[in-house]
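> @MW can you paste both from yesterday?
MW: sure, first one:
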Amino acid sequence: MRKRIAGCAGLALLVCGEVLHAQQSAGATTTASAGARQTEKDEYTRYELLAPDSASFRIRYEVTATTAGAKSYYNLIRKGSVASNEEVYDAMSGEALQFEVVSGEEARKDALMADAEVGTNYIKVHLARPVPTDGQGRLLILKTYKDAKSYYRDGDAIVFNRSLGIKRNSVLLPAGYELIGCNVPSQILPEADGRTAVSFMNGSVGEAPLMVRAKLGAQTGAAAAPRPLTTAVSWEAPFSGETEKQRLSERAHQDRDIVYFLKEPETHAFRLYHDYTESRPGADKYLNVVRAGSAVSEPSAFVLDTGEKLATQIMTGDELAAAKIDAGEAVAPTAQVVVIWFTPVKKGQSIRLRISETYTAVGSYRLEGDDLVFDRSLGRPRNAVVLPEGWYLSASAIPATVTTLADGRVRLDFWNGRPDSADVLIKAKRRVASGEKK
């Protein structure tokens, strides 16, 4: 067993389901529940291809541990890959974390990893703090893999050929290489230094059998650097669409997601939560401008990293202006704005917020005859809608994965890998009770 202490370092519309996380409560526990298994969410992997003849690539793995009370997290070292240069950081504080490499047999001694793979090694990370109840432990794991079966030359081309189980990924080509083939629908994006990134969200239930091919021919140095992105929008009428800057942002890496819990349709109301990571130094508040046609009530918020409850306030656009608070966008005088206050973020640190609200929106959510209708434009990359108890799904205009929760409610998950909104239209009907005439 090797002990180490990390050093200082710095598509098409896709759908996918995740485990339901209900509205969170604050408070931490010191030990994981007996028999609890390791769980995680929000995984994202970035593969930086190194010199072709090295057969090596640098991995940046972002992951969130979610087992309440857990003090450790285990990251599998994939069979066939030789790992080196490991570093682990706490995403909230930016501080390096202690870790060690253990065997699958050793990992099995921890109840979290009772089903660990024998014959495989794991990076055992000692978390900065126990995972709060209903909270999270966000991690950044850096490592270099050498794997000649995944990264190799083929004639005058280089090939990255690897099945990826993580649902959000990007692959960064070496300088001077142009992309000539990619078998998974992906965003192709320029890095600031001119290298090309291939980014995608995988909405399928299985792994993505990714194969990326590239060859020399791309510009390097200053000539390769892209010009600054602008706020210009598409010229095509009648829709102006998103700005160039928004359209060429990496969709897979965006970390905002939202879940809608529909109440009975006669109320026109739904409870929701959305998660947001703030990393701007000095930021001390989050402003959620309520869209026209919706009214907000019952806001609450807390820090997922620690369970700390936060102060919330509903203000109007006029009140915002009077308080000299900049929303970063034009806000109508009567518009509602939910303001969440928190301790200013320090440089190199971040916090992840969970914000919960109840919306009433007659235009978006209603009853038409016997049909429940939820008609709303969803702009996040990851969105979910949970039907009220006693209703079954009869229609969904946008492709979604569908699951049934333990209490019988139906959940739809929409993953949108495109830099635009998904105009979701859902219809549902009441279930027929046992013995009731159909």
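MW: second:
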Amino acid sequence: MSNIPEELVVAHFIVSDDVERSRRFYTEVLGGRTVISGEANDEVTYVALANSWIIINVGGPPTDDKPAVTLEPPPDPDRVSSFLNIRVADINAVYEQWRARGAEFLTPPADRGVELRCYLRDPDGHLIEVGQTTMIPA
């Protein structure tokens, strides 16, 4: 894939019931940039977000390279085993900007001592943490 500028890039893969709806969320709400977009709603889409990538695709049954794995959006968005973590310089500005664009946060940013943080979900229920580090490294 020639669009990837580094030898190694870590990307976050999400499964969506509606790839186009998720693409719009990650670009129009969070400010990412569509890099690759499938022609149909069920085709893989890549969104560049800051220094990372969000890969959006529909779910599906097991394949020969993942024989026991079924891909699906979270069946219960209140039970998670991983989430996207986004670090920002000014959480209050990001919170207001993304809310104005339609993001629905679970709570406003909260002070956790070493960081300010809040959470939102994407249209498929994937949890996203937004945080601002407040501790000064030694």
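> thanks! Strands lie at 11-15, 33-36, 45-49, 52-57, 84-87, 110-111, 115-121, 127-133.
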